[in-house]
Amino acid sequence: MMSDTVNSLGFAKPPSETRVVVAMSGGVDSSVVAGLLAREGYDVIGITLQLYDHGAAIARKGACCAGQDIHDARSVAARLGIPHYVLDYESRFRQSVIDDFAESYVQGETPIPCIRCNQRVKFRDLLETARDLGADCLATGHYVQRAVSADGSPELHKGADPRRDQSYFLYTTTREQLDYLRFPLGGLEKPAVRKLAEDFGLVVADKPDSQDICFVPNGDYASVVAKLRPEAAEAGEIVDAQGNLLGRHDGVIHFTVGQRKGIGIAGPEPLYVLRLDAARRRVIVGPRAALARTDVLLRELNWLDAQPIPPEGRAVTVKLRSAQPAVAAVIRPGPETDAGASTARLDLMTAEFGVAPGQAGVVYDGDRLLGGGWIARASQAAGTSAAA
Questions:
Q1: Where does the signal peptide begin and end (predicted)?
Q2: CA dihedral 314, 320, 323, 326 (to 10 degrees)
Q3: How far apart are CA 249 and CA 267, in angstroms?
Q4: Which of 38, 158, 182, 244 could potentially form a cystine with 367 if both were Cys, beta carbons 3.0 to 4.6 Å apart?
């Protein structure tokens, strides 16, 4: 929608004088973004990132940035009549995302590489490339909404379609980055996006959504980590919370906190992974009640709200895994680390189960994303009931 002075992207000039770089993964979402902006008359440039070796990627289906996806992005750009470039970010991606992913597993964490990719590649390196090309903004196909507050500051809100909302994966976005970013699909639902792709005559209109982490074939995280960090695949012990030996395992990389299936030990009650002691190659297991957590420490806090977290705390909701609903909590400032990074503490109103170090704790005020951090550790406050 346009007014007499401000175009649909919020700039006080005609679309034809507004240059937009669109991050095109080769999927339907980013392709429709390019189509919408081209239809409105913007000066659109499509950029696709080559993030890892084509030889391993060409046969991959259901993952972003593979060889077929680059081909699809080129085809879409040609259909829309916009320039398209493929940039080789393979070495940056390996260092910033894949190596970090493997190292997190070695430390006994459960990492989320998609967040690191947004933080260290797409919204840092690609954003700078867009600036170098003279673009007024960088647009992506994420299902989130960007709003502007009364004082003119940009805000990040959940996507209108709760089934597609991707705000959890974008909590590391800084205020400066958010000022430059645009998310044209935030107010749409997926069926409407596919209908637009059909209307534009795009080859990706019926393309399946990405399901796996792009560099992990068939969801087999363990094999990828084992190649990069063989020590993570070393055998070790499965013990209970008191340290009693219950069995053995083939590597901590095969386990995550909260896991029930695949432990391989029979008992009078179901056993869950309570903790991973990667240094001693131990998997600690126990009953579900022992998973209850009410006190969560977040590290590397990124806070988008203009108001800092008050010492007495602030009532919020928080998502502790991407697929779980947000739960009520109080957030308080935590101690600064030796490196000067901020932390925060979350007091959960009810106990949560399977809170895993390496996942993200993402904080909201209603639909507005306030910030978040990586889960460093979690514990159960004294006297808290484990009932759920």
A1: none
A2: -20
A3: 16
A4: 158
Cβ neighbours of residue 272 closer than 8 Å, sequence gap 6 or more? 258, 259, 260, 263, 285, 286, 287, 288, 290, 291, 354
What are the distances in angstroms from CA 258 to CA 102, 110, 255, 331, 354? 20, 11, 9, 23, 4
Assess whether 64 carries a catalytic annotation: no
Q: Is 24 annotated as a binding residue?
A: yes
Domain ranges of the chain: 18-218, 234-286, 290-379
Q: Which tokens in the block code for residue 174?
A: 């800084």
Which residues are CB-contacts of 196 (< 8 A; sequence separation ≥ 6)? 32, 35, 36
The answer to whether the annotation marks 262 as part of a ligand binding site is no
91 is in an annotated binding site: no
Do the annotations mark residue 31 as ligand-binding? no
Q: What is the pLDDT of residues 290-324, one digit of tens each?
A: 999 999 999 999 999 989 999 999 999 999 999 89
117 belongs to the catalytic site:
yes
φ/ψ of residue 65, rounded to 5 = 65, 20
Asked if the domains at 18-218 and 234-286 fall in one CATH topology, the answer is no
User: 64, 65, 114, 117: which is the annotated catalytic residue?
Assistant: 117
Report the 10 Å Cβ neighbour count for 366: 11
Q: Is the pTM of this model over 0.85?
A: yes
Q: What are phi and psi of 148, to 5 degrees?
A: -120, 125
Q: What sign does the CA torsion over 114, 115, 117, 123 have?
A: positive
Whether 102 contacts 252, CB under 8 Å: no
Q: Are 253 and 232 in contact (CB under 8 A)?
A: yes
Contacts of 104 (CB under 8 A, 6+ apart): 110, 111, 358
**CATH classification of 18-218 is 3.40.50.620, yes or no?**
yes
148 is in an annotated binding site: no
Ramachandran bin of 230, using left for φ above 0, alpha for ψ from -120 to 50, beta for the remaining angles:
alpha
Cα–Cα dist 167/155, whole Å: 11
Mean pLDDT, each 10-residue run in order, the chain (388 residues) = 75 97 95 98 95 52 64 96 93 86 85 86 90 97 94 93 94 94 96 96 90 71 82 90 93 90 87 92 94 94 93 96 94 75 92 92 97 90 46
Q: How far apart are CA 286 and CA 303, in angstroms?
A: 35
